[in-house]
Amino acid sequence: MTLTDTTTTVRISIELELDRQTAFDLLVQELATALERVGIQFEGGARGRVVENGVEVGRVVSWKPCQEIQLEWCPADWELRHPTRVELRFEPAGAGTKVMLEHQGWGHLIGGPQELAGWFTDQVAAPFFRATAPAGFGDWLTDRRARRPSGAQARSVYGDPLFHYPNFRVILAELALTRDDYLLEVGCGGGALLKEALGSGCRAAAVDHSPEMVRLARQANREAIDAKRLEILQSKADCLPFSDEIFTCAAMTGVLGFLPDPVAAFAEIRRVLRPGGRFVALGSDAELKGTPAAPEPMASRLHFYSEQELEGLARSAGFEQVQVVRRSLYEFAREVGIPEEALPLFAGPGATFLLARRH
Ligand SMILES: C[S@@+](CC[C@H](N)C(=O)[O-])C[C@H]1O[C@@H](n2cnc3c(N)ncnc32)[C@H](O)[C@@H]1O
Q: Closest ligand 1 atom, CA of 185?
């Protein structure tokens, strides 16, 4: 970073073991998703732009796939006379690609070098340290992989979550859905359980707080959505966007351990269930901690519950009829085609499931 007023440049870079085409496409896609999460829209292409709060803050002036993107940038809406420049450049680096992000010519908006140094430490260096220290890094990995999945790897995993199918089979067996059911799934991920559930002829709705998972689940269940048998909304588990007493049943799998307030989520699920409505949820067993089902850094960020604790959560949420059962996953694991070498993961006493019903 050069601490002179009008030529200030901030530059960050990373080297990726990807060819330039792949690096370019991936960066554009990831950037659009990451900016969306902080309320900024990024539209790529030669006539692309960046919009914050309905105001255009960036305009593409050069779009050269595999090489560079240049944006005319307006960092200050109170100072429109001096647009600045943001560049994203892609250069060969060994067998891979060096990606550089650069912002030039905006130091005069801040003031003298002391203020510039303050901006740099506060807005660039401190977030960098937070992102690379254990708490922030572990949180990011946990969110990215499971707590709020995003990115190409998560889309591929949750589009076809083979290792979750045994849990789905238990849940579907317990729910015994019919055409008359109206199912709610909370934390639907890529929508694979919904797809199986809809085979019963039931109607369904689902929520997930990850926008990418909502998109993926909608793609996977496009036909049912078009036929008005299914809706999938972006929402948090403890604030469901549905009226009271509309669902006949509800399911939740692979979500409980991530919930900051499971009683609030269970109470919401109970609220939207009709009297007599049933709820099946996969537990969050402490013995999974540190295994491939709950590896670090997820393991130390998940909440685990004993059978008694799980029952207590459901009762505290108001469920009148509550049972926690253990179900073997092994036969289901064989049935769904888990590779032979991974089958031992599904042996043992099985997983806990909450079976609850409201009066
Ligand atoms: C490990 S994934 C499981 C996805 C899917 N149920 C499955 O078994 O394949 C956890 C999912 O729960 C969602 N989730 C976690 N906490 C949530 C919350 N508080 N509200 C809504 N969704 C949540 C995540 O976004 C993610 O899609």
A: 6
